[in-house]
Specification:
Number of strands: 11
CATH topology: Rossmann fold
Largest sheet: 7 strands, mixed
Strand order of the largest sheet: 7-6-5-8-9-11-10
Shape: globular
Number of domains: 1
Helix content: 25-40%
CATH class: Alpha Beta
CATH architecture: 3-Layer(aba) Sandwich
Order of helices and strands: EEHHEEHEHEHEHEHEHEHE
Structural class: alpha/beta
CATH superfamily: Vaccinia Virus protein VP39
Length: 256
């Protein structure tokens, strides 16, 4: 234990890391805090809080906690590529490219969406990372998408691995199909982030009029996929990190 100029005890680097690891683990298990955060998230959604963020001047449909967790993942595992399904206004692709650049990696980012609007194309083209971002208009569960991902990964060594972010159609069947068709293409050591798993935790009538809701959402798809695929595991180190998060229990590791 070190001491400040005022005699206060200050944990050294090793002690601090252990202390924070304990806090992170215990916070992830605090269900009272989780319920409070869900109430806050529900209230903030009245103002479309998820849509208020920007990255490099481009709207990004992400909660700040999730942006920070993605930064931690990129910095920690140093991925060779990042693939995203559902790219909205383009901010998430720019985020991914910039985080790779910050980690002194050559950015390689692929975005797939069933419909890519002109304002999204313009935002990506005008970003400082446009040369590192490839976009493809197709269904994320189509044969075209599978081929695109296979070609994009094109591993140069067995040590390469990447990040896959699923954030398109949030029905159970669609996410389950994405996991089966795209996650299986990833090399061992890759991380998969499945968005909007929080749907399962929200009130049963919260998504009235949408094709997804309680019992039919990304989390139910993740749970089925994990039950059927022992070479994937839930990464509790990441999936319970965010207090306000769309990826709760939805961050996976391909381990074999």
């Amino acid at each position: 234990m070190d001491y400040s100029a005022h005699g206060e005890q200050i944990p050294n680097d090793e002690e601090f890391k252990k202390l924070m690891a304990d806090y992170k683990r215990n916070m992830g298990l605090d269900f009272k805090l989780r319920n409070l955060s869900l109430k806050l998230q529900e209230h903030a959604d009245m103002y479309r809080y998820t849509y208020q963020q920007e990255w490099c001047g481009v709207p990004i449909v992400r909660l700040p906690d999730d942006i920070l967790v993605l930064q931690e993942i990129v910095w920690s595992i140093k991925p060779s590529f990042i693939i995203e399904t559902g790219i909205a206004r383009g901010g998430s692709l720019i985020l991914s490219a910039s985080l790779m650049a910050l980690a002194k990696l050559k950015p390689r980012v692929l975005g797939l969406d069933i419909k890519i609007l002109n304002h999204t194309k313009t935002a990506i083209l005008n970003s400082p990372f446009s040369e590192f971002i490839k976009i493809k208009e197709c269904s994320s569960v189509s044969e075209e998408a599978i081929q695109e991902v296979e070609d994009f990964i094109s591993l140069k060594s067995s040590n390469d691995f990447g990040v896959l972010i699923l954030d398109s159609n949030h029905t159970h069947d669609h996410v389950y199909a994405e996991l089966n068709s795209l996650a299986s293409l990833l090399p061992v050591g890759s991380i998969i982030l499945v968005a909007d798993t929080l749907i399962e935790e929200m009130p049963s009538d919260y998504y009235a009029g949408r094709p997804w809701g309680k019992g039919n959402n990304p989390l139910t798809a993740v749970n089925q996929f994990l039950n059927e695929n022992s070479n994937f595991t839930r990464s509790d180190n990441w999936s319970k990190r965010g207090l306000l998060s769309e990826f709760r229990d939805g961050i996976l590791l391909k381990r074999s």
